[in-house]
Amino acid sequence: MNTKKIVEFALGQLDNLGFQLQKHGISSNVNRHNLIAIAMTQQDRVKAEISRVELKVDIQKARVERIRQQADELVENVIERAPAPIAEQLTRVKALVA
């Protein structure tokens, strides 16, 4: 069974449910049009939430990169000010970590 047949079957059953509910006087708001409207509204909400999360991730990435650059600058300053034998060892350690 392909997707189109499954969707058509599900929508047909939804229409049937709406008809049966309306027949018993329960509700006339259950139909494929309302379902599609709800789905589209939820789709927009999900897209907005995804955009919000992506923005937060991008902000955190920029923040981490800035902190990493500051740490690199700090390490470079320490290495520059250290005596030559210690600076050599620090440079080796930095190469291993980086």
Commentary on this structure:
The chain has helices at residues 3-23, 32-81, 84-97. The chain is mainly alpha-helical and 98 residues long. The radius of gyration is 30 Å and the shape is rod-shaped. It starts with a helix and ends with a helix.
In short:
Helices cover 87% and strands 0% of the residues.
Uncertain residue segments: none
Work out the number of β strands: 0
Task: State the helicity in percent bands.
Answer: over 70%
Portion in strands: under 5%
Radius of gyration: 30 Å
Which key phrases capture this entry?
98 residues, mainly alpha
What secondary-structure arrangement, pairings included, does this model have?
Blueprint: H1 3-23, H2 32-81, H3 84-97
Helix pairs in contact: 2-3
